[in-house]
Specification:
Elements: H1 11-27, H2 35-47, H3 51-63, H4 68-73, H5 85-98, H6 109-118, H7 121-144
Helix pairs in contact: 1-7, 2-3, 2-5, 2-7, 5-6, 5-7
Organism: Myceligenerans pegani
Protein name: Carboxymuconolactone decarboxylase family protein
Pfam families: CMD (PF02627)
Length: about 160
C-alpha cells in the first residue's frame, strides 16, 4: 500500500512534525508513570482508526516492557481487570477527549473528576497534552494514508 501523501518526504511536513515532537518531549516533564502515555497513545490511535500509530505505539510499548496482554485489552478496557484506577481514569479521559464531538458537553464531569483524583496538576497537563498531540498525529497519518505494519521500535529516534 502506498500513502496518499508521503508526509515524511515533505520539508514543510518535517517542520510540523518537529514541532509536534517538541510538544511530546515537553510532556515527559509531567511525571506520568510511563505506562499511562503508552496506553493513551494506543487507545486514541485505535479510536481514530490510525493503523500506523496503533502499530507504532503497540510495538514501542512492548519494546519498553509493557505486557502484551494488557495492550491487547486496551480496546476493551472497560471490562478488563488488568488496569489500575489511574490507568482507567486516563483511558476514560482519552476516550472522551478523542471523541469530543460525540458528547454534548465534551468531556463528562465525572470523567474529569476521576482523572482529577488520580493525577496532579502537572500530570494532568501532560495527560491532556499527550491526548491532544496523539489525536493530531492520528489525523496526519489517516489523512495522508500512511500504511501500517512495518514500523520498527526506535525507527524515528
Amino acid at each position: 500500500m502506498e500513502p496518499r501523501f508521503n508526509f515524511f518526504a515533505s520539508p514543510l511536513a518535517a517542520k510540523i512534525v518537529k514541532h509536534l515532537n517538541s510538544a511530546v518531549k515537553a510532556t515527559e516533564a509531567a511525571g506520568l508513570a510511563p505506562e499511562i502515555p503508552n496506553l493513551v497513545l494506543l487507545r486514541a490511535s485505535q479510536i481514530n482508526g490510525c493503523g500506523f500509530c496503533t502499530d507504532m505505539h503497540y510495538k514501542d510499548a512492548v519494546h519498553a516492557g509493557e505486557d502484551p496482554v494488557r495492550l491487547n485489552m486496551v480496546a476493551a478496557w472497560h471490562e478488563a481487570t488488568v488496569f489500575t484506577d489511574a490507568e482507567r481514569a486516563a483511558l476514560a479521559l482519552t476516550e472522551e477527549g478523542t471523541r469530543i464531538a460525540d458528547a454534548r458537553t465534551g468531556v463528562d464531569d465525572d470523567v474529569w473528576e476521576s482523572a482529577r483524583k488520580q493525577f496532579s496538576d502537572a500530570e494532568l497537563a501532560g495527560l491532556i497534552s499527550v491526548i491532544a498531540v496523539i489525536n493530531a498525529y492520528n489525523r496526519l497519518n489517516v489523512l495522508a494514508g500512511t500504511p501500517a505494519g512495518s514500523y520498527q521500535p526506535g525507527q524515528f529516534a
